[in-house]
Amino acid sequence: MTVRAVELPELWMPHPLRVNPHLPALRAESESWAREMGMLIDDEGGPSHRAIWTRHKFQAMTVDALTAWTLPDAAPDDLRLNHRFNIWALAWDDYFAATFKRTGDLRGALEFTARLHAFLSPQRGQGQPEPVNAVERGIADLQRQLFPPKLAHWRQEFNRAVARYIDAGVEELANSRAGRVPHLIDYAPFRRESFAAHTAPYSVELSTGARIPERIRSGRTMRGLLAAFMDVMGLANDIASYEREVHEERDVNNLVVVMAASLGIPLREAVPAAVHLVNTRMRDFEQLRREAVRLPARASGPHPEESAELETWIEGACGFLSGLYAWYTGAPRYVSAEAPPEPGYRAGADTRAPAPPSAVGLGAEARP
């Protein structure tokens, strides 16, 4: 028996969906880069041991919609660049799950991850290794194009965030092999790494052209806002991907499982508790964003240009969360074949977070 059909609209999203007007152009060329990198084959009969997706599976992920929904203000070139990063991140996720998580191959995962680190931070005086698979070809190509001159200031930080993402995959595999469920207190910061959430602030910057002013970035309010921003992303994803991660991949690194183990409650109760936790972090984000817009004026005098830039970035962050929510609730990647998604998008109609749901469309109680 499995827990199924979590009704994601129970998750609270106060910001309406905005769609980048360049989505049609992005959709038209969505497959070209993935195919060039060797991530994609045309049908089930092709060389699936080399590629990651069939064309049907790739189209079902709607990565073009994910990019256009999360970055509604991005210019065409910036949208295309972030789109390729999104494709790569999903390619890494699916390749790592199929090759290492489902086989329990920890040694192979460590070797694979060590090679990826060489693409992110090659030794001084040495070039990148020669790519030997689609994931390596993708990251090598991104390293050549991901950092135009206007983004040079965060090259090191962005690559560090990607490194944390791939390292977290190895830790997830080790947890699953040992049957070691992370503790709730440790899980939220770990999930920011395993979801690649540390790259998201830079994606918002790429989309909006606005930076968080350096003199307030490390302050308590902004640190709290960024943490809540990243938590909503990764923890909501756990609810959306529960069926695939836990029952298909036998993964213990999921908020629902973590809540059940840490609180000593059955999975039936853990699902609404997880939804409530995500809604709480969304409320935290809302409170902190209202405080954050006043920070530049409070820090050593008024700085109207910084206030405007921060407000632009925060608006982009709200759009990013709204776009992710729309993708979780509509993409076939996360919607069970037993319960096809309803058309449309429901968000922003009510600015109050819902009370914890007493039921979320669960089947019979079970433990993984």
Report on this structure.
There is one protein chain. This protein is mainly alpha-helical and 368 residues long. It has a single domain, classed as Farnesyl Diphosphate Synthase. Helices cover 61% and strands 1% of the residues. It has 17 helices and two strands. The chain has a two-stranded parallel sheet. Helix 6 packs antiparallel against helix 8. The radius of gyration is 20 Å and the shape is globular. The chain starts with 22 loop residues before the first helix and ends in a 38-residue tail after the last helix. The N terminus and C terminus are likely disordered.
Attribute tags:
single chain; 368 residues; mainly alpha; Farnesyl Diphosphate Synthase; two-stranded parallel ribbon; 17 helices; globular; disordered C terminus
Brief rundown of the structure:
This protein is mainly alpha-helical.
Radius of gyration using CA atoms only: 20 Å
Q: Please name the CATH architecture.
A: Orthogonal Bundle
Broad shape: globular
CATH topology: Farnesyl Diphosphate Synthase
Low-confidence stretches: 1-9, 337-368
Blueprint (SSEs and pairs):
Blueprint (H helix, E strand, L loop, with lengths): L22 H6 L1 H8 L2 E2 L11 E2 H7 L1 H8 L5 H26 L4 H15 L13 H12 L9 H24 L5 H11 L5 H9 L5 H4 L2 H21 L1 H7 L6 H9 L3 H26 L2 H4 L5 H27 L38
Parallel strand pairs: 1-2
